[in-house]
Amino acid sequence: MSTRTATPTGRAAAGERSSLLRLYLSRGILALVWALAFAGAHEDVDAAAITLLVVYPLIDAVSSLIDHRTTPDGSEPSGAAQVLVGLRRRGPELGKQWPTLISGALSFLVGITYNIQAAGGSPSLDVLSVYATGGGVWFILQALLLGWKSRQLRAGTV
Fold first, then answer.
1. Could you report the per-residue pLDDT of 100-118, keeping only the tens digit for each?
2. Which pTM does this prediction carry?
3. CB 76: neighbour CB atoms within 10 A?
4. pLDDT at residue 44 is higher than 60
């Protein structure tokens, strides 16, 4: 029985960085595309808006499932769990995960804010596009940092 550390080394770390880079980049781009689509479709809560409201959590769930299956530590990056994942992946081999930590913390805080707003007198769906855009940007930043880290390691400058 073997155990695996939270920060892999060598080929395992390179493979994990590559896998996470593709996942984060795809997830970030999908979030930005969704935010643009939802910004134009949410005024009338019609079939298009409802479809988009269902699709975004599915994207998040599928991304989390892919991350869970491809990452040796079996983590799911969503909200508060994302903060814990970022903390576990803080090693230099995976780019220290600052965007993941910031995104997870913001996601957790924004979720609380949305619940408070939804219970208020004038609930609105406007903030969902802003939320998805922010998440998309953080995922893309994390992908860029992982790519930069991979290039540094290949060049031997770390």
1. 677 777 777 877 887 787 7
2. 0.69
3. 17
4. yes
Amino acid at 158: V
What own/partner pairs with CB < 8 Å and gap ≥ 24 does 71-75 have?
71/16, 71/19, 71/20, 72/4, 72/8, 72/12, 72/16, 73/4, 73/6
What's the burial of 96, exposed, middle or buried (CB within 10 Å: 0-12/13-18/19+)? middle
DSSP state of 93: G
Long-range contacts of 21-24 (CB under 8 A, 24+ apart): 21/143, 21/146, 21/147, 21/150, 22/143, 23/63, 23/66, 23/67, 23/70, 24/139, 24/140, 24/142, 24/143, 24/146
Tokens of 96: 């220290």
Q: How far apart are CA 158 and CA 144, in angstroms?
A: 17
Mean pLDDT in residue range 9-36:
83
- Total residue count of the chain as it appears in this document: 158
Q: To 5 degrees, how large is the angle CA 71–CA 102–CA 109?
A: 110
Helix (H, G, I), strand (E, B) or coil at 94: helix
